[in-house]
Amino acid sequence: MRASQPLLRPVPVAAAAALTAGLAAGPAATWPGISVSAQGSTVSVVTSTCTLVDGSWGTASLLSSGQVNFGQGRQVPLERTPAGQAATWRSVSPGMYTVVVLCSDNFTAGTQSVVVPAPSPPTASATSSPSLGVMGALGGGTKGYGTVAFAAGGALVGAAMIAAGWVLRRRSRPYRL
Predict the structure, then answer these.
(1) Residue of 5, 93, 77 whose CA lies nearest to 45
(2) What are phi and psi of 171, to 5 degrees?
(3) What pLDDT score does 156 carry?
(4) Is 18 within 8 Å of 71 (Cβ atoms)?
(5) How far apart, in whole angstroms, are the C-alpha atoms of residue 83 and residue 137?
(6) Is the pLDDT of residue 126 over 80?
(7) Sheet harboring 95-103: ordered strands across?
(8) Which of 14-18, 54-58, 99-103 is the least confident region?
(9) Cβ atoms of residues 129 and 136 within 8 Å
(10) Which residues, at least 6 apart from 84, have a Cβ–Cβ distance to it below 8 Å?
(11) Helix (H, G, I), strand (E, B) or coil at 55
(12) Which residues contact 134 (CB under 8 A, 6 or more apart)?
């Protein structure tokens, strides 16, 4: 005669019961074992409850509003960080989610709800143009030249014109000894 095996092991059944009890409690259900945050479209969870078992810390699952068990969510393995163990989900759509952390030893570290806000629409802002811009015709950049600089430049141009006139006048006379 064959001995029958139970379909479910007692430890996962206890974890599933704790998970169901945590999810049934609603959005106010938080456990001190995890810390969940949402920044933009990124959701992250940190815990220090899990222990390393066979090279794994555990798994975290992100459940949307219609999902009720751990396996239905977006699952991410926990990774070691200076703060403990952490998991991160990127490109999460706006809405309400429940984060569940299940350690490798089948211990539920915690469950917590989080709201991912909708991105705010971009705001139009008036842009200001540079006060002087590029002064290409004047040969300068954006620096404004004062009256002294223009007067000095005008004096140099005038002196060059006088010198050019003097040289041309001397050439027009026949050379005398």
Answers:
(1) 77
(2) -75, -30
(3) 93
(4) no
(5) 61
(6) no
(7) 74-77, 58-63, 95-103, 108-116
(8) 14-18
(9) no
(10) 46, 47, 48, 49, 50
(11) coil
(12) 141, 142
